[in-house]
Specification:
By secondary structure, this protein is of the alpha/beta class. It is built from eleven helices and eight strands. An eight-stranded parallel β-sheet has the order 2-1-3-8-7-4-5-6, with helices on both faces. The protein is globular, with a radius of gyration of 19 Å. The model has no long low-confidence stretch (mean pLDDT 97).
Length: 400
Amino acid sequence: MSRAVHVLWDDGMTGYDFGSWHPMNPVRLRLTIDLIRAFGLHTLPELRVCPPKSATDADLAMVHTDAYTAAVRAASLDPRTADGTFGFGTEDTPAFAGMHEVSALIAGASIAAAEAVWRGPEHPDGADHAINFAGGLHHAMPDAAGGFCIYNDPALAIARLLELGAERVAYVDIDVHHGDGVQRAFWDDPRVLTISLHESPRFLFPGTGFANEIGGPDAEGFAVNVALPPGIADAAWLRAFDAVVPPLLADFRPDVLVSQHGTDTHVDDPLAHLAVSLDAQRTAHAALHALAHEHAGGRWIATGGGGYATVDVVPRSWTHLVAEAAGHAIEPTREVPLDWREEVRMLTRQAGPHRMTDGGTGDFRPFSGGYDPADRTDQSILATRRAVFPAHGLDPMFDL
């Protein structure tokens, strides 16, 4: 399915570091690239590991205000000047030395991913798919940081695609937190369909992402939110994905699919309350890959995102993502290479996982099999379908 896949990576990305106490530990990035290499994915003929260039101020201006970028630059030089005015310098998103430079590098990687996919595999520097697992910083607003995010690289990738001539871009966010910054950036733009599946904002940051958030006056139905009840596991999570994402992508027919693959839906994640397994995440990666080929001509940009089980979950999930994109899916029963587990022990003093599975199946019952009015997940699904399907000429009750 895939002829050319770019993984955007630079060791400098591990400098995105809020401090040793902060849950967003950059060791998760180091362990991910090293697990990708431990499985030999970087040697596949289909895959290139590409060092990105940093986003320029002009690039950042596609989404962020000049005043905000200037404030990030100032705090990057002297973090003590950050007082929370622009969203950083808080306990949630502290300022740190060099924050502009590393954030611009991560943003540049997603912009480079957009450019490579738009060129296509026929171009020497083009690709079918491109992955920036250091990205997915979906909470950053045009004029404010938030939720550990400085620059909103998925929004910048989408903005670059629109500049290059894309007429329709779909964004699918499967992080446990609402993709609020990307929704905000394209709230009133019908060229961009944003779909976010997340834990209900009644229980989780950022407190937005209800089903009735459907887009601005010129783009009603183009912001799509599935607010899921806490505690749900694989079958319910995948059922929600299946009930909303494929029919909307089939109708929208995007030129490019951009996806965000935060792993914090996992049962072991310390910052949220879903109970999803690695195996369900792997199923979602594969589904998005297939949907890109089915509805977007194979043009797919995938980013990382949240994920705070930094040893057991993040590296395995994103290694599965890269392998899936390259067309060389890793069997869940495969053992994790011993050398990588030794690295885990040296870097973290923890024992690394032994296999590429949690023992799940990735099975679920499709929503088309019937609606249960007493089921909390089905209630959330139907609320979303009723809110946005009519705007696309789709029947929210079809196949129920």
